[in-house]
Amino acid sequence: MNAGKLSATLIRPVWLFAFALAAAGAEPPQPPAKASIEQLVADYRADTGADVGLHAVRLADGEPLCRIRPTDRFIPASNQKILTSAVALKRLGPDFHFRTKLATAGRDLLVIGDGDPTTGDARLAEAHKETIYAAFDRWAEALKRAGVRRIEGDLLIRAGIFQGPYFHPDWPVRQRQRWYAAPAAAVNFNDNCFDVGFAVEGEKVRPVVAPVSRFLRVRSRVSLGGRHLWRCRFDKSGDGITLTGTVSRATPDPLPVAAPDPPMLFGCVLMDRLVRAGIAFQGKIVVSPDPAGPWRADGLRVIATETTPLPAVLRRANKHSHNLTAECLFLRSAVEPGAPATWEKAAKAAAAVLQADYGLPAGQFHVADGSGLSGKNRVSPAAITSLLGAMAGKKAFVESLAIAGVDGSLQRRLAGPICRGRILGKTGSLTGVSALSGYVLDRDGKPALAFSILINGRTRGKRHDARGLQAAVCRALIRAVDAPAP
What pLDDT, in 10s, does the model give residues 373-385? Predict the structure, then answer.
């Protein structure tokens, strides 16, 4: 057995160090700024006409510091991931591990998917100084240790823990090749994307596509031209790509293109790595949507298990606002013994948990997906701060949030001496939506305030923009926390 690549020991309270750096340059304490925040919001609304909801509450006693349309519902964008994280921790538990199994089943090789979104994730692989193929290479070595040098039958992928479609029905069809709209499945690889670039040699254009696999067919009709405009089309079989159009230059930085069939991508890359390791294979790749599969449990011989702890997945979802990871958490939280997850079932299960376990009023939220990509999600600022209050003592969640001016989606935001290291937050952005929710830390580096700022409508006016408003509100909240007690 292999414990996998993501150790829970990597989950550290990094914000404490960032807080110490920020404290040295902090301004002298100033009085609470409730009126100032209300004026900031009024000025922004006068400039943009946007709808703004804001709620800030002290965690020690639940006393609200500021309330602006606190119970109205807004589109939250990626702040939806806060709801998804709360549901996942309640349904799965903080000690949950995704477990993807490799087994033999007679003459066949079998992969049993568990919804892990991190296999082959380039960002995580780089952090662990591995290639994206590391998990599959470990499997190849495990097979050889078990005496398996040839796969006489097929590669069978049991992907029925999630019932399709792989794309959420709310997601815009025109965006389905974008990396942020990558589909979610029981097995996933390289964020379910192909990274496509082009090398130009004289008048010839050569596609450079990763991940690499001899079982993937790449056909290119791309030529050198005055416009950089190319397209990608996938075969219905899932193992063929056709590139057309023109490029005006070489592209050293590849563009990620979402693959429509994640299990087939997973299978093609896995088989290539096994063949490279000296394990012969002449069969085909078979993906089964049956959650139990046609393979008898007593005929299985488990060779290796790749595991990923829940805290590591929460960090990937929240720090970098990774949609695929959030959707896999969303779906996996709805899986029950013998009953696979669907988008509809996951939404109902999440709503039930948010009401029954966290006490959110049904009229203050609506769940459509797990990442916030759907425009049908709705939540109030007060519902978010209520959740943040309930989650403040859950280490796996708190440490999954981005740190202002330090990492994740806040690495280049709130980086001044007042805010750096003092905000743990979840960002959110869609067309006409900007959101920021999270915690303000006290001088000891502990969550003191929960806040939520949700903006729907224009995110930029003549004099103001959404991020500027959010930064100004955060500075006012920090000053309120630092102000001496009456």
Answer: 999 999 999 999 9
Strand ranges (E), 16-139: 51-58, 64-68, 97-105, 108-112
Domain 8-93+312-482: CATH superfamily is DD-peptidase/beta-lactamase superfamily (3.40.710.10)
Q: What is the pLDDT of residues 32-74, one digit of tens each?
A: 568 899 999 999 999 999 999 999 999 999 999 999 999 999 9
Report yes or no: 377 and 445 within 8 Å, Cβ to Cβ.
Answer: no
334 within 8 A of 349, measured Cβ to Cβ: yes
CATH 3.40.710.10 range(s) for the chain read: 8-93+312-482
- Residue 32: what pLDDT? 52
Residue 365 main-chain phi, psi, to 5 deg: -160, 160
DSSP string, 441-463: E-TTSSEEEEEEEEEES-SB-SS
Evaluate whether the domain defined by 97-311 bears CATH number 3.20.20.140: no
* Cα–Cα distance for residue pair 352/346, rounded to 1 Å: 10
pTM of the model: 0.92
In whole angstroms, how far apart are CA 24 and each of 190, 363, 475, 479? Answer: 41, 44, 16, 15
